[in-house]
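Hey team,

Filing this mostly as a record. A colleague (T.K.) asked me to run one chain through the structure pipeline before their review meeting, and I want the input and output archived in the tracker in case anyone asks later how it was produced. No errors, nothing strange. Just documentation.

Input sequence:
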Amino acid sequence: MKASRWISLITFLLCVVLFAGCGGGKGGNGGLTSNYILNLTIEPKAGGQVLLTPSGGEYGKNTEVTLTPVANEGYEFSAWAGLTGMK
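Output structure:
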């Protein structure tokens, strides 16, 4: 086989592998559910809590969630840390 045919064949196979999971039911994400789970860690634990609006912690795709820090007495909210802006 010529080199150009090998390149075409390899490119085709890579496309098949990469896009095999795209499509199908449930929102076109390869059959996976469209829900996302929001996990939060508060340091120190006695420092307070984070209110989620809407509440729950598990959300559908494109759901906007507002996080509100509430510090316990003697503590003060400092900053968000970790992964942010994930889409």
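Quick notes for T.K.: The mean pLDDT is 74. The chain has two domains: 1-29, 34-79.
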